[in-house]
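Final report, Chapter 2: Outcomes

The project's central promise was a pipeline that accepts a single protein chain and returns its three-dimensional structure in a standardized token representation, suitable for archiving and comparison. That pipeline is now operational. To close this chapter, we reproduce one record exactly as it appears in the project archive, with the input sequence first and the structure output second.
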Amino acid sequence: MTHERYQLWMSLALDGELPPDKERELRQHLAECAECRALWRAWMSLDERFREEPVVGPAPGFVARVNARLDARRRQRQVLGGLVVVAGSAVAWSALLTLLGLGVVWWLAGGSALVPQVAHLASSLGAILRVLFRTALVVWESLVAAPTQSLVLGYAVIVLGLAILWASALGRWRPRRGGANSGQHT
């Protein structure tokens, strides 16, 4: 004999949704079946406990505090993104203006007289870059050989993360094409 039907009826009876004819049949079955009767008593006891215990909700102001924290984090990310964009843009613009200034000075000096000086400057910069590269290579080799590999790798991950953050910030701060009046979604 399957008791699944009666178990379903017990659930409906606890919710007050069992039709009267099925309720009579359930009571008759409970009078005859000790297994279902024990289950019915356990379910009734559990139902009473649930009805007695108050429903505990969040503390007053909890949702407002969580939303305020989320808003603060959102603002922090926006400010940080803005600072990254401003700093990166300042570096890019200063490099561009320096190059432009050198071009203007070269043009004003007549071009040809400045060529040897520019070549000497380029040679000096090349020598400096070679020394910096060799220094970085020596530092890298000594750090990799040292037991602080995880520190170096962590630093590399941080630098990579900052580069990705920079690229992401630039992607978000680009002016969007097509205004609100153009009918295009960006």
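Archive annotation: Confidence is low (pLDDT under 50) at residues 178-186.
This record, like all others produced under the grant, will remain available to the consortium after the project formally closes.
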